[in-house]
Design a protein that fits this description.
With 326 residues, the protein is α+β, with helices and mostly antiparallel strands. It is built from 11 helices and 11 strands. The longest helix has 19 residues. The N terminus is likely disordered. The structure holds L-homoserine. The site of L-homoserine has 12 residues, from helix 6.
């Protein structure tokens, strides 16, 4: 046996199977970027959630099933839940596999982490069945393979908050360095205009270089936002929700964008912007009454534009993927 082979062999993980062999989880939506923190900040939401059921198999295989006939790719390598599980089972020392049934409730292409919910839900559920032999950081490492299937690149600003809960800072993905950021109990209003923006496309239109003056403003905002969350300084959070690099380019894809920002601030929101790569927009508010006024403002705008939409008023989910059975 050569040394390289020997080393990989040694790294294989021994599962400690749970008796049930079946688990049901809720995999939550997430808001990536949090306006100024492109690819480095994300937040987990209490609503909406995907429902996922995962069964243990005693052969090295991943099976993907879509409940309710929702059109998802069923080839595991092309599925955002399947690709992370293929990576995971390759690191096990026993022939193990999973059958995953996805009840898709978070619409793909909505900008609230639909692909991440599938990826994170699958790896948390599978790890539960294996006796939690992998760390949260390992789970993020696996889940990023799902994001690669969905958008062509690995990014962790949806999968990390989905797995860790709360608000996370991804300081680096090579090597993975994830920091949980404490925050006040804020309310989140989301509007999802019913158009689809593919993350892959929304990344392709971005400029590859930034001006130093824009970079200075952006990193001031990122630091201000993180400090605002940690110190529960709502005004600082509001001032820091500004993006001078990504949003000016992406906002042209979203009808009503400027109006939503103006009218929601008038309705009392601290601030907000594009959720992930859009088209959903999110706003943070200090209390529920304000978050509902913000929702009304959003509804009025899209009714006037004549575009179908969904809205949610929710809160920050501090726990991430939740095991509800098994
Ligand atoms: N940071 C990613 C992007 C998130 O904005 O492209 C995608 O949900």
């Amino acid at each position: 046996m050569d040394l390289a082979h020997h080393l990989t062999e040694n790294k294989k993980i021994k599962p400690n199977y749970s008796a049930a062999g079946y688990v049901k989880v809720l995999a939550p939506a997430t808001v990536a970027n949090l306006v100024c923190g492109f690819d480095v900040l994300g937040m987990c939401l209490n609503e909406p959630n995907d429902l996922m059921e995962v069964k243990l198999l005693n052969e090295k295989k991943v099976i993907i099933l879509s409940a309710d006939g929702y059109p998802l790719p069923l080839d595991p390598a092309q599925n955002t839940a399947g690709a992370p599980l293929i990576e995971m089972i390759n690191e096990l020392d026993t022939p193990t596999g999973f059958e995953v049934t996805i009840h898709k409730r978070i619409k793909p292409g909505s900008g609230i982490g639909s692909s991440a919910a599938s990826a994170a839900g699958a790896v948390v559920a599978a790890n539960h069945l294996l006796g939690n032999v992998f760390s949260n950081k390992d789970l993020v490492r696996f889940a990023m393979f799902g994001e690669k299937v969905a958008s062509g690149v690995k990014h962790a600003d949806n999968v990390a908050p989905c797995i860790y809960g709360g608000i996370t800072l991804i300081r680096s993905i090579h090597p993975l360095d994830i920091i949980s950021i404490s925050s006040p109990d804020l309310f989140v209003t989301i509007v999802h205009p019913q158009i689809e923006v593919r993350t892959k496309d929304a990344r392709q239109i971005l400029r590859k270089e930034v001006l130093l003056k824009d970079a200075i403003r952006q990193w001031g905002n990122i630091a201000g936002l993180v400090a605002g969350f940690m110190q529960s300084d709502l005004d600082l959070i509001g001032r820091s929700l500004e993006d001078v690099i990504i949003e000016p380019v992406r906002s042209i894809l979203i009808p009503g964008f400027d109006e939503v920002k103006i009218k929601c601030k008038e309705a009392g929101a601290l601030g907000g912007g594009i959720s992930g790569s859009g088209p959903s927009l999110f706003m943070l508010s200090r209390d529920e009454a304000t978050a509902k006024n913000v929702q009304t403002a959003m509804q009025d705008i899209y009714k006037q534009i004549g575009l179908e939409f969904n809205t949610y008023v929710t809160t920050i989910n501090q726990k991430g993927v939740k095991i509800i059975e098994g």
